[in-house]
Amino acid sequence: MEQQVTRRLVETVRGVELLAAIAMFLVVIPLHYPEQLLPFLDIRETDSLLGLERHAVERLFLLLPITYLGFLFGMKAGLAGSGLALAIMLPNALLASEHRADALVEVGGVVAGGAVINVGFERLRRERERRRLVAEQLAISEERYREMFENAHDAIWLQDMQGRITMANKACGEISGYAPEELVGMRVKDFLLEGSLNKARQIRGGLLAGLTIDEPYEQEIMKRDGTRALLWLTASLITSRGRPTGFQLIARDITEQALMQENLNFYLQQVTRAQEHERQRIAQELHDETAHSLMVMAQRLDSLALTVRRWRHKDVATELQEVRGNAIGALMELRRLAHDLRPRILDDMGLVPAVEWLADELTQQNGIEARVEVDGTLPRLSEEAQLLLFRIAQEALRNVGKHSGATEATLSLQAYNDRLEMRVADNGHGFQLPKAVGDLAATGKLGLLGMHERARLLGGTLDIRSERRRGTTVVVELLVSAVNRQVPRGGSARRKRPTS
Fold first, then answer.
1. I want to staple 434 with a disulfide (CB 3.0 to 4.6 A). Which of 127, 140, 439, 468 is the partner?
2. pTM for this structure?
3. Could you tell me which CATH number the domain at 152-253 has?
């Protein structure tokens, strides 16, 4: 109902405005033809009106309705007004004026001036309409952004350059325990622990230096009830006219996922440890029981072969020698299997001699020149850390022997600050790496996936770099923390010089 009343009122007003424009034209017609329409005023051509030449007054009055129509109803109405003015002025210029050329110029000037004014009005109208549309779109975008901001599943907040929160959505309240309106005005450092605060300062410095933080990072906060929550954060810089004005942060609570991952890591650790203990037990039994029995059998076969020779039964002696050879071969294979299951050199002498043994095995079995390089004094690692590093090196060197087509391989160990790096590189033909670690299983590269999992159990990282015809490099880095460190119990670490 109100809309109908408003529409009628607008239509009435516009109708009055149109009548006013028509009235202006009706007023100017007698002024343009005073001799014919207003003879009783006795206005002559040379007379003046209001101190102005009569022609100037006529032009002024003709431009008024043209301008009025163009301003109120648009360029088409203004051009129609110019046409009407032309129809009013042209007969006088052609038929009654003594100076026809001057009159036509005046007519053209009025019409052209009206057209220019109307074009200007149209451009102003279009600009105003464009700005109105932009303002409406901006308002719609702001409304949509606010709706998305408020109802987003992830926590989103804005903070100024001093670290005060200026906006926070509902999810922020769920993560922190504070209501969104309570968060506004609070400082972010009130939620962060000391280590998290240092990381936040580093991120802030990187953003202000122009760096883009593409990868999410972890932060730990203290909630209102005193419990801790682990967040997965992304941060971006907010600028205005090229100057930083604040930061936008998007957070997701991964406390439960982290706890589940920690439990999974613990489970994998226990499974790996149990697997290695079982390997150690089987290797010990093979070495102590089965290998001993084979050795005793070989010795008895030697004794029988000697006795048969004395009796001069050469055929039997030859067969016994063959049986002895088979027993010795089985013994050597058994020892190799026992070494693969759990090399005693790792338990007896440590990581460096164990990887040197792997390098020697690669040279002997595959003809690949392999060397071990140790840079500096390595820290003493726990048995589990040594075992996992050994398994990674074993898998990497096994891949070199089976798939790389390399002629040289290098395994290097380097300690720097509180980190340890193990690098296995070859000069083989390389291979195409999957885009993600999760694709390793799908492509059948379970050995590489196992290397990744073992590095993760150490709290470290594994990076595989490979290019066609440029070889492959496997790099393991781990933090030598209290978990991975162990007081030395014996054994020695020796440096193997590169062979020429």
1. 439
2. 0.43
3. 3.30.450.20
